Write a sequence for this structure.
């Protein structure tokens, strides 16, 4: 509750009703972002602050635009604060003045509580304490100058607080008289307590001089309402200062001489605050591009114009590929520098009429207006992608970066901001799923895919409880002897009689964090199966399990693996964990977990080697045992000299580091022979066997590799044991 002054004195010549501003108050349920938007509206731009009321219309605080400016000036200020409550930034002890208070007592209250420079005004209330409106300190001081001039002490103090001075001009002598406090406000060395009008006018800028000459011209003497002038001058220290001049002409009834009187208000802080707040509210602090709020405003205008003129608007949604890796590997300073360089490249490519905006993170948007057809948009998208081909200089490092772009058109795809953004966003993710560094146009098919993803994610929530998951196993053979040495455990999901591709449901599990409990189940089932193999004739045959970075980040993950090995009685040396190269770069616990697993005796394999960013240093640091040559290189063996060279290089590199190599995706005898000639250690692929359900895998091992089996318990006796412990 604010500080309240509530009296009922005799009325002075003027009461507070004339000062009342019917300003719509803020609701206590509002967010900081909503408050910023309200402060930026045209009708509220003149106010230093806005009042906050509770559900009973009782004022509980004031929000100053200066406070908001301070918050938004901080790094990521708007992003961090925009969803927080207005209650967190308001002054909860505003000055409350009852409307029936006298002018002089109100002035006393203002001078007692407020100080220069004024950053807040006061709230006017009814007798019962409910909100009436806002009172502005500068209005109060102007009223005091007119009606309370007899109380010079109160008047001077109030004018000092408000940054307000009074003046009087005598037309006959052409001398203008200033109140003493004006000189420090305007910041000039010349003393202007009384000076010729021309000397006073000369201290202002040329534009302001024209306004003042017109104001004091004889033709203005007969105007009933003179305009309020905004004036500018350069102070002695070089600062540009802003002032608001108000006044009126009159003839002295006794002497008949013409005079003019008025006030000069220092509005420098207010103007700077307005400009800063407008900049902070509408532009990204880092890149200086329009932010999400200005972008939405411009997109709204573009859509309106498009529908009115029967033209098209294109929205391009850009995302920097592997931006997180740059942040993690090179640091956030390098990430920020990349964002600034991307912003510069985009703006240099496009027309001045186009809008480039940063929505946040590594997401940018481009609005193209007056588009004739999709080919025109495709040309722009190709130019953007080509511009990324030139490396970025980040802290003296030359870094290659690409972008994925989604495109939606108005009105053919959508005619609202939300729908257009959603369409472009989906198209962008489609571009990423197709391999990145490309653009995709929105299609209705993407909507169907989105609905399917939503439905699958819903089903995934209960898939583990319903027993819809099953492990398949794909054999891995020794290249030279064709001996079975291991099997990779692969998760399969059948729901509503439909088999869902792992490429479809694994990303959904990762995004919903279901990968953690499901991954725990996979590990236990794989270890249990491999342990039973050891007892029943497949001695020495290990099992490989794929791990997600989300699993490795769990603080209890290593302890869970150790407990699982103990529970299933599987030797750590028979468990291989497969991770992608990016895990080695993860600074959130994944790499440390791998190191601890290696110390337990668990083997570590790098899956899809050659497609990521890891270096030889990481391979040695984390005690990697195996490199898995990605199937994209295996497919072209003997048909593509580049793939041949890559395969040979990986095998040679691995062997020089004491690592083994497993080739994935082997499908032909020619590939098998090439890998055998190059001394690749292990083979995996459809040439050997497709992934098989557990029972079929053991049957395959029996029939294809009977020589490996010394004594084997009939599988029908073993299989129930596996199911019972699932």
């Amino acid at each position: 509750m604010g500080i309240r002054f509530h009296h009922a004195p005799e009325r002075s010549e003027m009461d507070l009703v004339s000062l009342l501003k019917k300003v719509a108050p803020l609701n206590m349920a509002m967010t900081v972002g909503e408050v910023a938007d309200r402060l930026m509206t045209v009708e509220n731009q003149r106010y230093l602050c806005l009042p906050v009321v509770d559900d009973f219309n009782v004022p509980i605080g004031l929000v100053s635009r200066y406070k908001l400016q301070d918050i938004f000036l901080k790094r990521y200020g708007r992003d961090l604060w925009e969803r927080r409550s207005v209650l967190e930034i308001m002054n909860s002890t505003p000055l409350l003045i009852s409307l029936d208070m006298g002018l002089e007592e109100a002035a006393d209250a203002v001078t007692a509580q407020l100080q220069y420079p004024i950053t807040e005004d006061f709230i006017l209330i009814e007798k019962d304490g409910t909100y009436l409106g806002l009172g502005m300190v500068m209005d109060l001081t102007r009223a005091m100058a007119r009606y309370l001039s007899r109380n010079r002490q109160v008047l001077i103090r109030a004018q000092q607080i408000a940054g307000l001075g009074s003046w009087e001009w005598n037309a006959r002598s052409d001398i203008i008289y200033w109140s003493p406090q004006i000189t420090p406000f305007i910041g000039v060395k010349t003393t202007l307590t009384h000076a010729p009008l021309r000397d006073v006018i000369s201290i202002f800028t040329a534009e302001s001089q024209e306004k003042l000459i017109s104001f004091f011209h004889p033709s203005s003497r007969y105007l009933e309402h003179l305009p309020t002038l905004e004036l500018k001058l350069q102070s002695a220290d070089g600062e540009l200062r802003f002032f608001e001049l108000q006044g009126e002409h009159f003839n002295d009834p006794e002497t008949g001489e013409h005079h003019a009187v008025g006030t000069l208000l220092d509005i420098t802080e207010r103007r700077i605050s307005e400009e800063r707040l407008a900049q902070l509210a509408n532009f990204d602090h880092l890149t200086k591009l329009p932010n999400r709020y200005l972008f939405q405003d411009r997109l709204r205008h573009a859509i309106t114009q498009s529908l009115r003129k029967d033209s098209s608007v294109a929205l391009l949604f850009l995302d920097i590929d592997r931006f997180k890796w740059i942040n993690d590997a090179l640091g956030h300073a390098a990430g920020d520098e990349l964002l600034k360089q991307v912003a510069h490249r985009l703006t240099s490519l496009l027309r001045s009429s186009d809008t480039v905006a940063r929505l946040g993170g590594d997401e940018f948007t481009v609005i193209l207006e007056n588009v004739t057809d999709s080919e025109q948009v495709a040309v722009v998208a190709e130019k953007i992608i080509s511009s990324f081909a030139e490396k970025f200089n980040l802290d003296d490092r030359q870094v290659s970066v690409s972008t994925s772009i989604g495109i939606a058109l108005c009105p053919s795809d959508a005619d609202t901001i939300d729908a257009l953004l959603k369409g472009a966003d989906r198209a962008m993710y489609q571009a990423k799923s197709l391999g990145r560094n490309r653009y995709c146009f929105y299609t209705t098919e993407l909507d169907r895919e989105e609905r399917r993803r939503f439905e699958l994610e819903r089903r995934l929530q209960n898939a583990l409880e319903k027993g819809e998951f099953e492990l398949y196993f794909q054999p891995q053979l020794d290249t030279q002897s064709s001996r079975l040495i291991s099997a990779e455990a692969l998760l399969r999901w059948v729901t509503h009689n439909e088999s869902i591709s792992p490429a479809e449901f694994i990303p959904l599990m990762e995004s919903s964090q279901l990968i953690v409990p499901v991954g725990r189940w996979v590990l236990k089932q794989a270890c249990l199966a491999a342990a039973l193999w050891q007892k029943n004739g497949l001695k020495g045959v290990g099992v490989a399990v794929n791990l997600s970075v989300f699993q490795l980040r769990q603080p209890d993950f290593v302890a869970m693996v150790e407990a699982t090995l103990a529970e299933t009685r599987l030797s750590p040396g028979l468990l291989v964990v497969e991770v992608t190269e990016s895990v080695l770069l993860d600074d959130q616990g994944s790499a440390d977990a791998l190191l601890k697993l290696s110390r337990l005796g668990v083997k570590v394999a790098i899956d899809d080697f050659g497609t990521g960013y890891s270096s030889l240093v990481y391979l040695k640091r984390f005690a990697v045992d195996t490199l898995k040559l990605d199937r994209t290189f295996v497919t072209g063996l003997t048909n593509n000299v580049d793939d041949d060279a890559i395969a040979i290089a990986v095998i040679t590199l691995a062997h020089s580091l004491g690592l083994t190599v497993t080739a994935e995706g082997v499908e032909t005898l020619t590939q098998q022979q090439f890998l055998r000639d190059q001394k690749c250690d292990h083979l995996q692929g459809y040439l050997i066997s497709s992934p098989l359900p557990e029972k079929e895998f053991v049957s395959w091992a029996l029939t294809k590799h009977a020589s490996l089996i010394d004594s084997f318990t009939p599988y029908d006796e073993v299989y129930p044991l596996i199911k019972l412990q699932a």
